[in-house]
């Protein structure tokens, strides 16, 4: 059985992805008029012919592509974090679907069909509504932003920021490195909630702006970031509140 590998590119987090310093293709190989397709609510992916040898460009009007989920065995993706566009290099002649998420919270599915043609310049027209809503398991409670959090969650985040221990909570100080950029340094545990103090370091060569969505996962109720804008090597503190596994809430 052939094993399919999917990759996710996150602009600002994938090193070596930017191509801002050089044109992606010689002018004579780019089609003269960009192909524009509105982001409709129809979930069926739009199909676009692209150059089999690449490169091919995909951009979205008035939005930046933050993430691209794709089949790594079929296509190589290079991302430009400055402009929020991506460049596509097919690895096979097979059609492949890309799932693009923008900074306007939209997700769109695009199917590319590699052909023996010139490099393509595909520009999608932005839409006020997302094409595909991110799937969420039924057992995961809705993520709450700071303005709608209940009093307990807000109190826990404030206490963690002040290095205080709220009534009913115990603390566990243990450094757990989750990936190259993030580590958990402290946990606050009660019967219903778990509070986590994380340290995030910008290990890339360019400045980044963090979003709470980066730290969401199943069971997370709220996220607060101490400093969103980080220069290379800068570190910030992130506070996260989760529903404790097995809680009756």
Description:
With 249 residues, the protein is mainly beta. Helix content is 4%, strand content 41%. It contains 1 helix and 18 strands. The strands form 4 sheets. Strands 11, 12, 13, 14, 16 and 18 form a 6-stranded antiparallel beta sheet that branches. Strands 1-5-8-9-3 form a 5-stranded mixed beta sheet, with no helix packed on it. A 5-stranded mixed beta sheet has the order 2-10-4-7-6, with no helix packed on it. A hairpin with a 4-residue loop joins β8 and β9. The longest helix is centred in the middle third of the chain and has 11 residues. The relative contact order is 0.15.
Low-confidence stretches: 1-6, 11-42, 128-149
pLDDT average, as an integer? 75
What percentage of residues falls in helices of 4 or more residues? under 10%
Q: Name the overall outline.
A: elongated
Count, helices: 1
For the termini, the CA-CA separation is 42 Å
Number of strands: 18
* Proportion of residues in extended strands: 35-45%
Radius of gyration: 21 Å
Largest sheet features? 6 strands, antiparallel
Classify the secondary structure makeup into a structural class. Answer: mainly beta
| Element order: H for helix, E for strand | EEEEEEEEEEHEEEEEEEE
Topology at a glance:
Elements: E1 6-10, E2 35-38, E3 46-51, E4 56-60, E5 65-71, E6 75-80, E7 85-90, E8 96-102, E9 107-115, E10 121-125, H1 151-161, E11 170-172, E12 176-177, E13 182-189, E14 193-201, E15 208-209, E16 220-225, E17 229-230, E18 235-243
Parallel strand pairs: 2-10, 3-9, 4-10
Antiparallel strand pairs: 1-5, 4-7, 5-8, 6-7, 8-9, 11-13, 12-13, 13-14, 14-18, 15-17, 16-18
